[in-house]
Design a protein that fits this description.
By secondary structure, this protein is of the alpha/beta class. The chain has 8 domains: 1-138, Serine Threonine Protein Phosphatase 5, Tetratricopeptide repeat (Alpha Horseshoe); 198-293, Tetratricopeptide repeat domain (Serine Threonine Protein Phosphatase 5, Tetratricopeptide repeat, Alpha Horseshoe), CATH 1.25.40; 318-415, Tetratricopeptide repeat domain (Serine Threonine Protein Phosphatase 5, Tetratricopeptide repeat, Alpha Horseshoe), CATH 1.25.40.10; 417-470, Serine Threonine Protein Phosphatase 5, Tetratricopeptide repeat (Alpha Horseshoe), CATH 1.25.40; 478-593, Alpha Horseshoe (Serine Threonine Protein Phosphatase 5, Tetratricopeptide repeat); 629-682; 697-838, Nucleotidyltransferase, domain 5; 848-1043 and 1080-1094, Rossmann fold. Helices cover 63% and strands 7% of the residues. The chain starts with a helix and ends with a helix. The model is unreliable at 1-20 and 865-890 (pLDDT under 50).
Length: 1095
């Protein structure tokens, strides 16, 4: 009906109307109030035809167009533009028709055309406020603003006494974050309007000045200007100006901590906006009410109001308003603990700020992103973003940004245990907010200083600051900070032994958290109560409190859509899991119970399994089927990372250039991850995909165990080591406590160094291997594992780097000399898993149809700049120390890689195998291969390990300069591959390693291949020269093609070598099997003749 009416009106001739039929202002307003926007559009056009100079009619037309439903708005704007264009053809010099056409084009988001007609109107003599306001607002990019500024300055040269030009130039300065220049221009315009008696425009200048004073951190000045503008609006009966000044006053009162005054003023403004049928101002008031609700801790109301506002601003393409609204939504989601949504909002807002050159907004968003990284435990990025924001804040005098930066940087140093440095930043923030009168943030500064004193052990000062912060927070209605103070007071009183005060404080924090929906306050309160009850020896309520805290933490972690976020977030919470496992074990010691032991195992699994399980669940969602525009953008980002990585090969780069390039690379990787975060946040499949729970004992037994298979799982805490011996019939737990636990871990580290040394023979490792066996398995383990033939080891922390099959069971022989070593692998088949729950999830892939082809071997890449290098196998520690992104990285050629690939390929039928090597083994080609069509993927190439940034770990391939790829198949790219492999063999150095995270395990190449679809991975724990690797792999594949299971093939290969003088531990002990172990890979064998040639 709307479209039909508008279409009919568009085809009608613009004939003059009878004055008696001219729509009255009250009739138009009535249509706008009732939502009859189509009728209002027609009425406004009729009024414009009759009275072209009636500026109010154009304002109503703008409101009517904005109020038209999005599905019909385009047609409505087009019709309005056509009607005004007809009028303009009859009167080409009419300033008002050009103005009206500019308004119509702006509502259609045709900003270039809008500016063209608005400039024309001004050039023809249009000298009224609305035409200048529309022109200044018609921008989307920095270039648009500069274009408008140049036009206005050129006009000013010929008309220096034009107050509208000064006013407009002041607003251009404001949009460019040039606040002192904006103030000067607006004050001059105000004085000129005052002298001319143009009271309405004087009031507009005061309104704009109030906004400028806010950004200059002059809150009293901002309030004075808004109130002065309000008085003028009442005097001139300018209802629109009255609404604007009330809303502005409300916002400033919020900054000053006067929420009652703020809410009263904003509610009045909202009522007037609805009476005036001005949707734009109604939305502005709703946004400000959302901010007031957020500051009061009413998160549900705040989210509703701010979401309404954002939707409107997106529909009307009001980019600056979107930017500001997204900032508040970022803070809201952060308070709710939804860091993925917070990051998505902040990233979108940062993009807008940079597009429109809103420097202060950019500082806001850099600060909030840094604050999110702080909450996620990524302290390096938190510092980086806040230092960038602080630089902008110092230059542009950002509204909140400076004190926010100082507070966040201080909290980073708290986490890094540099309490003195933290105190300096907190004190700086407190002095600054007191200087500018921004009382709303005082409570946070006082709280942070209290935290620093608490960490330093100065409890009396900490108590003083927490108490002062609590008073300030209560006065300002800062409910989140109230809850934080209650929790810290609970911690403080617990340390002082004031049990009841501590309990009461935690209960108050819990109450506030529940009231405002703030999960962090709630889980911290439960964790505090758990520690309190544990200190008093009250185990049942302590266990219950810790379980509740963990339940909330798990809910929060599920919302984190990127593994990079999950690991940092969880690292700071792992101590709660450790405390609960300690309590459960001690409860079992006091009152033995099979149920308590099972709970102990379950929470150890929770601590270790959830992140990897989340990754495996997310991998089930097809992330490759993106819309074309998103797929192209992601591809461009990935290629940019590759291009920047390849620039490190430039010999001309000096240290400063490399540092700058490293920074650009880091930013590019951030952009890539944040884009994925945004896409995942918009995809409901991801929120449903990450609900997997760790397995309980009955499920572990059903899915993983039989009469011949046992699990030995380790849980390494800050103090204690727990060893779980799990079989189909029994579960037992052993605990190692200080000082024995740290001694054992030191012994393990030394043993790993011993094993990986090229100078050490098999007999040399026996004494240490026996000691570690006794410590980590021992007589209790032997007894419990009686009758078991296959062991699945689930390591933790340092133990991930230990090849358990090299341990030496049995007692030291009594005769002199050393007996031949009998290693654990000679008694058991050995494999590894990140956790029992993760292994159970990986084994579900057995239900998938197998790939058709057997073997795809990739490797022996062409390596640049190797002419001066010696052949040293798979590199060596010198390569890792010159990591490929941190320093110049010379890759040594793999002399035996081609022979390795040829020898294993000969074992498989020619029709079912494929080899990609040399110049053909490019990254681009590998990505385009049908990888999901092969049962076994074998990579014979260098690997590069990054223990700081897991996503940068990579396999090295050949470089094709035409492809735009850098030749490094990084973990972030492997995650996005789609595989269906029974087995991935990483015949390269240290491929089983990666970045170690508490509660996360190793994040490296093997994990990436599991997430992309592999059932098993064979990888190395340290560097092995490629000649030995070639011989090792030839033996391993010979057993595989005989039909041996993956675990049997590896075990038999190692047994054959472990007693040979030619095979030292560093050569045979490095390779481990992770994942599915008890299945064979049905490979089609080559002919007998080919196999004979092989041997």
């Amino acid at each position: 009906m709307v479209l039909a009416a508008l279409a009919a009106a568009a085809s009608a001739s613009p004939t003059p109307l009878d004055p008696r039929q001219e729509p009255s202002p009250s009739a138009i307003v009535a249509d706008l109030k009732s939502g009859r926007n189509a009728a209002a559009v027609l009425a406004c056009l009729a009024r414009i035809e009759r009275s072209p100079a009636d500026v109010t009619a154009y304002a109503w037309l703008s409101q009517a167009l904005e109020g038209t439903p999005p599905s019909a708005r385009g047609a409505a704007v087009l019709m309005a533009a056509e009607r005004i264009e007809r009028l303009l053809r009859q009167d080409p010099e009419n300033v008002y028709f050009h103005y009206g056409l500019g308004v119509a084009h702006q509502r259609q988001n045709s900003l270039a055309l809008a500016r063209e007609h608005l400039k024309k109107s001004i050039s023809l003599g249009g000298d009224f406020g609305d035409v200048f306001r529309e022109l200044v607002d018609a921008y989307r990019t920095k270039q648009d603003i500069e274009d408008t500024a140049a036009f206005l300055r050129a006009r000013l040269e010929g008309s220096p006494d034009n107050a509208f030009l000064h006013q407009a130039i002041g607003r251009v300065h404001y949009y460019s974050s040039e606040y002192q220049d904006a103030r000067a221009s607006l004050e001059k315009a105000r004085e000129m309007f005052r002298e001319k008696g143009v009271r309405g425009e004087e009031g507009q200048c005061l309104l704009y000045l109030s906004d400028v004073f806010t950004y200059l951190n002059d809150y009293p000045g901002a309030l004075r200007s808004a109130q002065a503008g309000l008085r003028i609006s009442l005097e001139t009966k300018d209802r629109i100006l009255e609404i604007q000044c009330l809303e502005r006053s409300a916002f400033v009162w919020t900054d000053l901590g006067k929420d009652v005054d703020a809410r009263e003023a904003c509610q009045k403004a909202l009522t007037l906006a609805r009476e005036a049928a001005c949707r734009e101002l109604e939305i502005l008031c709703l946004r400000t009410l959302g901010v007031i609700s957020l500051e009061k801790g009413d998160l549900a109301t705040a989210q509703d109001l701010l979401s309404q506002a954002l939707e409107y601003y997106r529909q009307t393409a009001a980019v600056r308003s979107q930017d500001i609204c997204l900032y508040w939504l970022t803070l809201l989601h952060k308070d709710k603990g939804d860091y993925s949504q917070a990051m998505a909002c902040a990233t979108e807002a940062l993009r807008i700020s940079r597009e429109i050159d809103f420097k202060t907004g950019e500082a806001f968003h850099l600060t909030t992103i840094g604050d999110i990284y702080l909450a996620l435990g990524d302290y390096e990025r938190a510092l980086e973003y806040n230092k960038d924001a602080l630089g902008l804040a110092e230059q542009y005098i950002g509204k909140w940004s400076r004190e926010e930066c100082l507070n966040t940087i201080g909290m980073v140093y708290i986490e890094l245990r540099e309490y003195g440095r933290a105190m300096e930043y907190f004190q700086g923030a407190l002095e600054y907010i007191r200087k500018i009168g921004h009382r709303r943030e005082e409570a946070r500064c006082l709280y942070n200083i209290g935290v620093a004193h608490f960490k330093l052990g100065d409890f009396p000062k900490a108590l003083t600051y927490f108490t002062d912060s609590l008073s300030a927070a209560s006065l300002a209605g800062k409910r989140v900070i109230q809850a934080q103070n209650y929790n810290r007071l609970g911690d403080l009183y617990r340390e002082l032994g004031s049990w009841e005060r501590s309990k009461d404080s935690y209960s108050l924090a819990q109450g506030v958290g529940l009231e405002i929906g703030q999960p962090t306050a709630i889980w911290e309160a439960y964790a505090g109560l758990g520690a309190l009850y544990a200190a008093r020896g009250e185990f049942p309520p302590a266990i219950e409190s810790y379980k509740k805290a963990i339940g909330i933490i798990e809910d929060l972690r599920v919302q984190l859509l990127l593994r990079e976020y999950s690991s940092g977030f969880f690292e700071s919470k792992i101590s709660i899991y450790e405390a609960l496992v300690d309590l459960l074990y001690e409860g079992h010691e006091q009152r033995p119970s099979a149920e308590t032991l099972e709970e102990c195992l379950y929470y150890a699994e929770k601590a270790k399994a959830r992140s990897f399980l989340d990754d495996l669940q997310k991998a089930k969602v097809d992330f490759t089927s993106l819309p074309r525009d998103q797929a192209d953008e992601l591809e461009q980002m990935s290629r940019r990372i590759s291009r920047l990585s390849s620039e490190f090969n430039d010999d001309a780069l000096g240290p400063a250039d490399r540092a700058a390039l490293r920074e650009r690379l880091g930013k590019a990787e951030d952009d890539y991850q944040l884009f994925i975060e945004k896409v995942r946040a918009e995809n409901p499949l991801y929120s449903r995909a990450v609900s997997s729970e760790p397995c309980r004992l009955p499920e572990i037994r059903a899915k993983l165990l039989n009469g011949e298979t046992g699990i030995v799982e380790y849980f390494v805490g800050e103090e204690n080591i727990y060893i779980f011996f799990i079989t189909a019939a029994n579960l037992s737990v052993r605990r190692i406590t200080p000082p024995e636990s740290p001694r054992i871990l030191r012994l393990v580290k030394n043993y790993i160094l011993l094993l990986s040394s090229r100078e050490i023979e098999n007999s040399d490792i026996v004494p240490a291997g026996r000691k570690i066996y006794d410590a980590l398995i021992g007589a209790a383990g032997r007894e419990h594992l009686s009758g078991i033939k296959n062991l699945i080891f689930i390591p933790d922390r340092t133990l991930y780097y230990l090849p358990f099959e090299t341990l030496v069971p049995g007692e030291e022989p009594g005769r002199p000399g050393r007996a031949p070593a009998r290693f654990l692998l000679e008694d058991y088949g050995v494999s590894y898993a990140p956790s029992a729950s993760t292994l159970a999830s990986i084994l579900e892939r057995r239900e998938r149809p197998r790939a058709e082809a057997d073997l795809l071997a990739i490797g022996d890449p062409l390596l640049g700049r190797a002419k001066d290098a010696k052949h040293e196998g798979n590199g060596g520690s010198d390569l890792l120390s010159e990591y490929y992104l941190e320093k110049r990285f010379v890759l040594h050629p793999l002399q035996y890689a081609a022979r390795e690939m040829e020898s294993i390929s000969r074992l498989v039928a020619p029709a079912s195998r494929r080899t990609v090597s040399g110049a053909a083994a490019t990254e681009d080609r590998v990505k385009r291969l049908p990888l999901a069509g092969y049962k076994v993927l074998h990579f014979a190439t260098h690997s590069l390990l990054d223990e700081m940034v897991a996503s940068r770990s990579a396999l090295v391939l050949s470089v094709d300069p035409r492809s735009g790829e850098d030749g490094f198949l990084q973990a972030r790219e492997i995650y996005n591959l789609k595989l269906n492999a029974d087995l991935v063999v990483l015949s390269a150095c240290q491929t089983a390693g990666g970045k170690m995270e508490k509660g996360e395990g190793l994040q490296g190449l093997s994990r990436a291949f599991f997430c992309s679809g592999s059932r098993s991975v064979v990888a190395s724990l340290w560097n092995v020269n490629d000649q030995s690797t070639s011989r090792f792999m030839k033996s391993y594949y010979a057993y595989l093609t005989e039909g041996r299971t993956k675990q049997e093939a590896l075990r038999l290969t190692k047994i054959k070598m472990c007693h040979s003088a030619a095979w030292r531990p560093c050569l045979w002990a490095a390779f481990v099997l992770i994942g599915e172990s008890d299945a064979a890979v049905p490979l089609r064998r080559s002919s007998l003749l080919r196999r004979l040639v092989h041997f």
